[in-house]
Amino acid sequence: MNTEQLRSLALQPNASNSKGQLLDPQRLLDATDGKIDREALEALAGQSILNPRQFDRRTVVALAQLAALLETRNVEMEKPLDGKIAITAFFEASTRTRLSFESALLRLDGKVLSVPDGQVTGIAKGESLADIGEMFNTYGDIVIMRHPDTNSIEEIQKNLQRPLINAGNGSGHHPTQALIDWYALLKWRPELCRPDCPPERRIHLGIIGTPGSMRAVKSFLRLSLMFAGAVSKITLVSEMADPVGLDLTEPIEQSPIPIEVTNDVQKVLKELDVVYVNSIAFLGDSYRNLDGRYKLELASDLKPGAVVMHPLARNDELSEDLDDTDHNLYFAQAAGAVFVRQALLVSVLQRLNRISDL
Amino acid sequence: MNTEQLRSLALQPNASNSKGQLLDPQRLLDATDGKIDREALEALAGQSILNPRQFDRRTVVALAQLAALLETRNVEMEKPLDGKIAITAFFEASTRTRLSFESALLRLDGKVLSVPDGQVTGIAKGESLADIGEMFNTYGDIVIMRHPDTNSIEEIQKNLQRPLINAGNGSGHHPTQALIDWYALLKWRPELCRPDCPPERRIHLGIIGTPGSMRAVKSFLRLSLMFAGAVSKITLVSEMADPVGLDLTEPIEQSPIPIEVTNDVQKVLKELDVVYVNSIAFLGDSYRNLDGRYKLELASDLKPGAVVMHPLARNDELSEDLDDTDHNLYFAQAAGAVFVRQALLVSVLQRLNRISDL
Amino acid sequence: MNTEQLRSLALQPNASNSKGQLLDPQRLLDATDGKIDREALEALAGQSILNPRQFDRRTVVALAQLAALLETRNVEMEKPLDGKIAITAFFEASTRTRLSFESALLRLDGKVLSVPDGQVTGIAKGESLADIGEMFNTYGDIVIMRHPDTNSIEEIQKNLQRPLINAGNGSGHHPTQALIDWYALLKWRPELCRPDCPPERRIHLGIIGTPGSMRAVKSFLRLSLMFAGAVSKITLVSEMADPVGLDLTEPIEQSPIPIEVTNDVQKVLKELDVVYVNSIAFLGDSYRNLDGRYKLELASDLKPGAVVMHPLARNDELSEDLDDTDHNLYFAQAAGAVFVRQALLVSVLQRLNRISDL
C-alpha cells in the first residue's frame, strides 16, 4: 500500500487486518439475502453467556451476521449502548481480550469500569467472589469476567444479578472466542452457515491441542459440533491419551460428525481444510506450551487453500513466516473480535432496536 | 426469584442488593414530604471533602435525600456531570471504592481519569504529592484520592487548586463512607433524620473496632455524634484502653450522647439496635485483623430487629450465614454507595440545576 | 488567593498552574494577529508523530497557536473528537504522560482504551509488538505508545495501520514533550515565534543533561535547532565527552545556531536566559540521576529574568524553593501539556473543522 492508501485506511472507522486473508463481511450477509434471524438474537436478552453449549447453530449464525452488519456499517452515530455500563473484571490479566471488549463497548457509546488486573488491586484483600458479585449489582449493567478458577462463574453468581459474560474461566470455557472463531470461518466460506452446505464445500477441521485443558480450543470444538452440515470431519492432534475431557464426551458422542484423534501432525496436515492451533495449555495454575513437533510454518505441508486459525497471543507454535500468505486466517479472525462482541452486547443489553435496518 | 424476575431486574438501571434488608429510598423522601434542603447542598459547591467534621446533621440529611432521589429516578438522560472530568487517584489500591466513585461519575455522564494503583505506576519515580497536585490542576475538575499516608491531604493541597475528595487517608478519615453508612441508616429508619425522633425509635449504636486507628469507623462515629436526637447511646467494643484517639476526644466530650467502652461483646450485643463492625485496623503501614472473639454470625446473640453494618470488604469477623437474614443491612449499605457519591459530586461540581424536580 | 477566588478557579474548565510564571495564551495568538497556519496543521492529517525531525518551525508555531486557542476557549461543547478512540499503550509506566494524553482526549469527547502498564498485564505472555500492532488496528483510531525499547516504533509499525504517536521510546525521542516545551517558551516570549525576532529578545539557551541518552532533552534540542531566528546560542552542560549522540550530529552541524559544550554549570549559569534541566538519564535498561553539582535552587546564580524549564517529574536536581519565584517556568510548561496534545490529536485525527473560529 502506498502512503495515501494507508492514510485513508487509518482514518476509516473499521480498519481490517494488515496481512493474510482479507474477508468481506458483506458476503456473509448475502448468503441469507441480508436477512438476519432477529428472533434468535432477541432470545439472548438479559442472558448470561457462560458456556457455548447454551447456543445453537441458528444463534451462532445470527450473531455472526449481526457482527457482519456492524462491520460493514458505521453505526457509532446511532449510539446503540448509550447509557449502559459494563464492568470488565479481569482477575487474570489479558490485555487482548479486555481491550477487545472495551473497544466494542466504547465504539457503541457504552461505558466501561475497568479492572485490568484483579490479582494486584484492592480486591486482593481476601474478598470472596460472592461479595464482589454483590458489589457489582449497583455498579454496572453487565459484568465481563476472566478468572483463573474454573468455578469462579458459580461463585460470583451467588449474588450477582446482572448478566455475566464469561471471558475465560480457568480450564472451563471461553464462549465469545468460539463465536469469533466461527465468525471468521463463516466470512471465509459463507456456505458453511447453511444447513445444506454442498459436500464439496464442507471442511475437514483439524485441531492441534488438548480441548480438555485448553478453554479456547474446548469452546471452539463445542461450537463446531453444532455445524454438522458444514464440518465433514474433525481431527484432534494431541499427545494426550484422552484429549477431550469430561465436558465434551457426551456432545461428541451425540454429534454425527466423525472425530479422530492422532498425535502425528505431519500425517494429517495435508488433508485439513482448516487447522486450529493454540499455544497455551491451562494445567492447574500454570501454563504449558506445546512442544516443537506441532509448530506450523511456511515449510509445513499445508493443503493448498487451507487456512490456519489461532486465537492469539501466539508463541513459537505459529511462525510469522505464514503471516503474508493466504493460509493466514488468524489475523482476519482477530480483526473480527470487536464486531462479534458488539453483536453479543447489543443483544444481551436489549438494544437491537437501536441498529437501523436490522 | 424466578428467571423472568431476575432478567427484568438485570435490565433495570438501578438494581438493588441481592440479600438482606431491601430498603426503599422513597420512604426517606417521604419523611420530609419530598422536600430537600437545597441550600445545604449548594453550600458544598467547590468544596473539598476531607473530614466528616465539616458536615452537620442538616447537610448529611440533605445529601442522603438527594441520594434517595437519584436512586428512585433514572436521571442518566439528564447527563448532570456532562463535560466534567474526575481523577481517581488511588495510591492505595481499593477496587471497591474506586469503582464506586467511577460508576457514580459514568452514570451521570462524567468522565474518569483512573489511577488504579499509584504505588506501582509511573508516579513511583519519586515524585512528591505536591508536584502531583500541581499536575492534576490542568488534568481534571475534581480529584478523588486514597493514600496510605494520613498527611497526604495536606501534601497534595500545597499546589492542588481543584476540589479534593478524601477517599481514605491512612489512619485519618473516610468521610464518604460515613455518608454512605448514614444513608443506609436513614433509609432503614427514616425517623432518624428528624431532630425530634420519638424516643422509642432512637437507636443504641454499637461499634466493634478501634476508631482511633480505623478511619472508616472513626468517620462513622464522628458523623453519628451529630445525630443526638436519633442515637440514644453509643457503645464502643474494643480491646484497646483508649479506642477513641486524639481526633475525636473533644467532639465526644461535647456530644450529649452517652458513650460507653467495653471489651465484652457478648454482654452488650443483645442490647444493640445497630452493630457496626469493620475488619481492618490500620496500624502504621500494615493492616491488623480483629481477633475471633468479635466475630458476628447467625449464632450470635443479636437483638431481634437489630441490623449489622459493615463497610466491606469483610474477613472472618462477619459470617456469610447472616447474609440471608434481616440482620443484614451491610448489603443495602453497599448498594447505596454509588448514589451517595453521585449526590456529593453533583453538589460539589455545581450541577444541582441539572437534576429536574429538585 | 482567597477562598472565593480559589473556588471560582476550581470550577473553571481551564485552570492554570498554581505557582511561578502565569502565562497568557492570548499573547501568543496576538503575535500573529490571531491568524493560525491551518495548512501546516492539515498536513498532519493521518500522520504518525515519531520524531521531532518531521516538524519544521512553521508546524511547531501552528500547533502552539492551536494549543493557545484551545487554552483560551471552552471548546468542549463542540466535541471535536466525538467518536474517536485512542489506545494509550504504556509499556513503560508514566502516569504523568498517560493522564495528560487521556485528559486531552476526554476533554474533547474522545474515548480512551488504557493500558496503564503493559509490563505487568497480559501482554507479557510474550506477544511480539508486531502482533500487538496488528491487534490495535481494529481496536482504536490512533495509538499512543511509550516503550522502554528504542526500536519499539519500528516493531509495532510492521503491522499497525493506524497513526502512532510516540510518547517516548527508550533513548530515542519524545516529540510531544518537545512541542510542550516550545509552547511554554512561545507563550512566555511570543516574539520567538517570528522568523525575525529582534536580537535583544533572542535567547541564550542552556541545556543541563546529555541529549544522546535522554530522550526528552534530545527532542527539545532537536526542535530548538529549528528556531535559528530566536535562539542566539545553545550551551550544553554535561559531564560526557560527546553529549550529543549520533542522532543529532548532522542537524547540529547544519544549524546556524552556535553550540558550546561545557561541564562547568556555575560558569555559564548567569549568562543563560533559559535553563532546561532534566533528572533522568536513560542508559540501557536503567535510569541514572544527575549528580549534585547540577542542582538548581534559589541560591543558584541565575540571571535576573531567566526561566528554568523541566519536563518533570523532578528529583533533587531542581529544588522546590524555586517554585514560588518567577524563574519557575516548569509549572507553566506542565500546565500547557494537555492543550498541546489536544492540538496534535485534533490535527492528526482530521477534526480541525470541529473547532469554530479556526
Number of DSSP helices of chain A?
13
* Cα radius of gyration of chain A in angstroms: 20 Å
Question: What is the strand content of chain A?
Answer: 15-25%
Mean pLDDT of chain A: 90
Structural class of chain A: alpha/beta
What's the order of the H and E elements of chain A?
A: HHHHEHEHEHEHEHEHEHEEEEHH
Low-confidence stretches of chain A: none
| Largest sheet, strands/sense/barrel of chain A | 5 strands, parallel
**Tell me, what's the shape of chain A?**
globular
CATH-assigned fold name of the largest domain in chain A = Rossmann fold
CATH architecture of the largest domain in chain A: 3-Layer(aba) Sandwich
Q: What is the helix fraction of residues of chain A, given as a range?
A: 25-40%
N-to-C span of chain A: 34 Å
What kind of oligomer do you see? homotrimer
| Major beta sheet, strand line-up of chain A | 7-6-5-8-11
Classified in CATH, the superfamily of the largest domain in chain A is: Aspartate/ornithine carbamoyltransferase
Kindly report the greatest chain-chain contact and the residue count on each side: A-B, 38 and 44 residues
Secondary structure tally: strands of chain A = 11
CATH class of the largest domain in chain A: Alpha Beta
Number of domains of chain A: 2
Word description of this protein:
Chain A is of the alpha/beta class. Chain A is 33% helix and 15% strand. Chain A has helices at 3-10, 25-30, 38-42, 57-72, 95-107, 129-136, 152-156, 175-188, 215-224, 246-254, 265-269, 330-335, 337-348, and strands at residues 85-90, 111-115, 142-147, 164-169, 203-208, 231-237, 259-262, 274-277, 280-283, 286-289, 307-309. In chain A, the strands form three sheets. Chain A has a five-stranded parallel β-sheet with strand order 7-6-5-8-11. A four-stranded parallel β-sheet of chain A has the order 2-1-3-4. The first copy, chain A, is globular. The two termini of chain A are 34 Å apart. The relative contact order of chain A is 0.17. The model of chain A has no long low-confidence stretch (mean pLDDT 90). At the A-B interface, strand 2 and helix 6 of A face helix 1, helix 5 and helix 12 of B. Chains A, B, C: It comes from Rosistilla oblonga. Chains A, B, C: InterPro entries: Asp/Orn_carbamoyltranf_P-bd, Asp/Orn_carbamoylTrfase, Asp/Orn_carbamoylTrfase_sf, Asp_carbamoyltransf_Asp/Orn-bd. Chains A, B, C: GO terms for molecular function: amino acid binding; aspartate carbamoyltransferase activity.
